[in-house]
What we know:
The structure is a single chain. By secondary structure, the chain is an alpha+beta fold. Helix content is 36%, strand content 29%. The chain has five helices and 19 strands. The chain has a six-stranded antiparallel β-barrel with strand order 3-9-12-11-10-13. Helix 2 (94-162) packs antiparallel against helix 3 and helix 2 (94-162) runs antiparallel to helix 4 (210-238). The two termini are 59 Å apart.
Amino acid sequence: xxxxxxxxxxxxxxxxxxxxxxxxxxKPVAQTxxxxxxxxxxxxxxxxxPLPGLIAPYQxxxxxxxxxxxADAVYVNEGDHVRKGQVIAxxxxxxxxxxxxxxxxxxxxxxxxTSHTVFQGKLSISQGVDxxxxxxxxxxxAQKTLAFDTLTLKRDQQLLASGFIAQQTVDQQExxxxxxxxxxxxxxxxxxxxxxxxxxxxSSVTAPGLQQSAIEQSRAQEAQAxxxxxxxxxxxxxxxxxxxVDGVVVNRNLNxxxxxxxxxxxxxxxxxxxxxxxxxxxxxxxxxxxxxxASIAVSDLGGKTVRxxxxxxxxxxxxxxxxxxxxVQLSNTRGTLRPGMAVLGQVDLAIxxxxxxxxxxxxxxxxxxxxxVDSDGTVHTQHVVDLAxxxxxAVVRGIQDGTRVVSDGQSSIGDGEKVAFK
Length: 422
């Protein structure tokens, strides 16, 4: 082929520039987004429920006094630690001691009177028995005398009829028999009176009767005096106000010289053990089994964690609300925990089995959907049921073991998109 003419060269270059100006720019190639995925596997988790709350004392003890005596001494101040049985205040007992001595003296006098009554009763019973015996003997003697004189009268009457004795002799004998009859009736009356006296007094100081009742009355007076003394002694003992628990004095409302009155004079808190009182919803407490163990993180102690058993679940705090309280008992032997400290509790629940996925895989606050990726990189929405979680891993129902799920459910990909993954 021969060489082109010189004029053709510039024309050809101009044509090439025109064609280059008319050509369209090339479209950029779209890049497939990359997502992190994980394989859902069958397994189990031990879920826990994070519950906020506060440290509370094991019990608050309000101390009052029923005595009307002034305080002699107060040995504790607010913030002091006290032991069970420790004397924390003493009230004046001068008048109570005087009353006790008076009651004891009365009891001794009543005891002496009881002893006297016993001896007097024995004497009265003995004299009554002797009197009855004498009266009975007098009756027997009167009966014999009457019988003899009556027989003599009959003989005299027979002799009178035969003319051997005078009428005057018979009349004298009749008068004698009449007198014997009067004597017998008098002796019988005396014997009856003596018998009634013996029956009323009783045969002994232990048998029912007036003497026994007198002794019992005297003993009752002695017992009453002793009871009064014991009551005063109890009041004297109460004058020593002691701590009923190991704890801390949180309120002191009594000073030396003051009368307790009816007010609360001390408030003590038992702080070993104590409680973590956690707030929970009805759904949360429904999952807590009896005897569950809770881990309590104390933010005021740099996040220190202590563990203890759940000892109670209290129903709604305010009627009509859905707030519940979970009480966890904690040991506090070192006294590092204080009522009022804020805590976050994690209650260990029963083991739950199912398909394990990351908690971050859920696409909605209801934890009812996750995103799966099939082998060609296509994304699909999967509906699941969240059974439980431990804060990092959830157990669900609704997908198969081995399903590849998107680790971050909040990523900006949707159903049907293509993604790259490892």
